[in-house]
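Write out this protein's structure.
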Amino acid sequence: MDNGKRNLPHRLIYELGHTFASRLELDDLLGLVVGKCREVFDAEGVSILLLDHKRNEFYFPYFTDLDPNVAERLRELRFDASKGVAGAVLRNSRSVRIDRVEHDPDFYSVIDKHTGFQTRAIMAALLVAGDTRLGVIEVLNPIHQENFTDDHLALLEALAESIALAIHNANRVGMLRTSAEKLRTEVGALRRDLARHEISAEVIGASPEMSEVFRLMDSAAAAPSIAVLLEGETGTGKELVARAIHRMSTRADKAFLAVNCAALSEHLLESELFGHRRGAFTGATHNQPGLFRAANGGVIFLDEIGEMPLSMQPTLLRVLQDGEIMSVGDTRPERVDVRVFSATNRDLR
């Protein structure tokens, strides 16, 4: 083992590698990598150049230096993967350290001209995971010393291994999330088609007015978070429509809980909806979670909401605006993810 390898700060390599591996979002990971490397190498700039295999081009998803405008200009830039110091590293699969770039034939001055950044010295290492070449990491211009050293280059090579593996894993996680999102979209579309067939047997009508109702149901089902208010006379099937919207939505596999606001007193309704703590009032012998907690991830249907006492409205408004509830007798709000459907036979205006 050469002297450069023996002098590597192994704990630093381990800690940074562990930190990089914990980031599964590519943008977060790359921002962390360039920030940490700029700090470790006391450098003016650090850039990640990723390889677009289809176009055989380098591009800059992330860069950090003393001037944030440089990063913006670099994001616009792509160049042939055979050019520059990065191209030489990719071509030869070998890290490089260049103390004075103006004397190096591989230096690609077009990038500096485009960004206004002045490169004096550079280190570059290949980012490779398994058999896949991902790109190159470059460290530019030491701040408090004249040149980078062989020890610096050895450290960059060691970190490049962890960085490449972390980028590879983040890319895989991104692809899995994209596939999962695509699958959820497809399942949602199939679920809505199935629900429409079921609803056609339950909700009868072919008039222009009913066609508009079906259109609004489709629109409400496609927006999984917005609150829905159903208005109509008693017996017109408002809860049936609410359940149909729920079955067509992405929350269809979660709970649908209904409560009649007219059937409970103000005190009982608050406890029923938001729960209560043991000892909050006479007879409260145990903690009660409430319907909003029970419906977390799903839907709660507030029938006859026009009968809800006015004093309950601020509490309900906090749920609708902030997604927070507070049990009777508690002092700490708790976040819930519940979609609220309401129904009334009154003219609320």
